[in-house]
Amino acid sequence: MEKVIEISNLSFGYGERLILEDMSFSVEKGDFVGVIGPNGSGKSTLLKLLLRQIKPIKGEIKLLGQNIEKFNQWNKIGYVAQKASSFNTSFPATVEEVVSANLFPQIGLFKRIKSKHRELVYKALETVGMEDYKDRLIGNLSGGQQQRVFIARVLVSEPELIFLDEPTVGIDSESEGALYCLLGRLNQERGITIVMVSHDIGAVTVHANKIACMGNKGLVMNENTEEFAKNSLREIYGHDVNLHAHKHCCTNCWKKGAI
Ligand SMILES: Nc1ncnc2c1ncn2[C@@H]1O[C@H](COP(=O)(O)OP(=O)(O)OP(=O)(O)O)[C@@H](O)[C@H]1O
Ligand SMILES: [Mg+2]
């Protein structure tokens, strides 16, 4: 199997304090990895390391087979940050402009947007059910609608690998279900590799094929999500949870047809 992320002996700390110590794991093409763990266990820090926003003290990171220090395919990587910190929504830009901004590497910064690009933007908005809002100002949308637009912004550049850091914070439960459903379909139907940090263990165990548990400066990858779910969900809910009931979640998906 082709590895899209390879981490070997990675250590990182802010100042003297180690947050991650001697961590090694890999993610294969087509995986949907749910990253869980208590507050402060280093989940967001790990994503920042994978996005090269911070540098490790020790160890190696490879993305799409390339050492991160020389990595030059950032257009194939999508990132949906935790909503509040990700974007200045008072900026007077329309939904269409916010999404097409992620095409600038293709379009060129000062060139006019062509109809083929406009079509890509429309398609991405359609995938998240926001095409009717394309001329609206981003700042005038609700939190959940903005989050959908940020996902369209990532999709428009057709990434192979998407990182999401708690993407459902501030989203109502219906939109939350729709978002997980969409991610599951992007993974299943388009083969996009997904790494998602979430505190929603129930949703993660349904949609992910691997669960990465962070804690004690390390990461344990669970490849048998059913077994993991059985044990951990019983612990949380006090009884067995029927995961199959959640698998048919697509009744409220934003996008009913093919994606
Ligand atoms: N810029 C920073 N400078 C110093 N310490 C930091 C910085 N960012 C995070 N930390 C510390 O590093 C540890 C890991 O933080 P991180 O944000 O990665 O945790 P997390 O697992 O994402 O937590 P949460 O579930 O609350 O989002 C925490 O103890 C945090 O206080
Ligand atoms: Mg975090």
In angstroms, what is the radius of gyration? 19 Å
Structural class: alpha/beta
Mean pLDDT: 86
Question: What compounds sit in this structure?
Answer: adenosine-5'-triphosphate, magnesium ion
Helicity level: 25-40%
Query: Into how many domains do the coordinates divide?
Result: 1
Using the 3D structure, state the CATH architecture: 3-Layer(aba) Sandwich
How are the strands of the largest sheet arranged? 6-7-8-3-9-10
Protein name: Zinc ABC transporter ZnuC
GO molecular function, one term: ATP binding
Domain ABC transporter: 5-241
InterPro entries: AAA+_ATPase, ABC_transporter-like_ATP-bd, ABC_transporter-like_CS, Metal_Ion_Import_ABC, P-loop_NTPase
Description:
By secondary structure, this protein is an alpha/beta fold. It has a single domain, classed as Rossmann fold. Helix content is 35%, strand content 24%. The strands form two sheets. The chain has a six-stranded mixed sheet, sandwiched between helices. The two termini are 25 Å apart. The relative contact order is 0.17. The model has no long low-confidence stretch (mean pLDDT 86). The structure holds adenosine-5'-triphosphate and magnesium ion. Adenosine-5'-triphosphate binds at residues 14, 19, 37, 39-45. This is Zinc ABC transporter ZnuC. Residues 5-241 form the ABC transporter domain.
Blueprint (SSEs and pairs):
Blueprint: E1 3-14, E2 17-28, E3 32-36, H1 43-50, E4 58-63, E5 66-67, E6 77-80, H2 83-86, H3 95-100, H4 104-107, H5 115-127, H6 143-155, E7 161-165, H7 173-190, E8 193-197, H8 201-207, E9 210-215, E10 218-222, H9 225-237, H10 243-247
Bound molecules: adenosine-5'-triphosphate and magnesium ion (MG).
Magnesium ion (MG) binds near residues 43, 44 and 165.
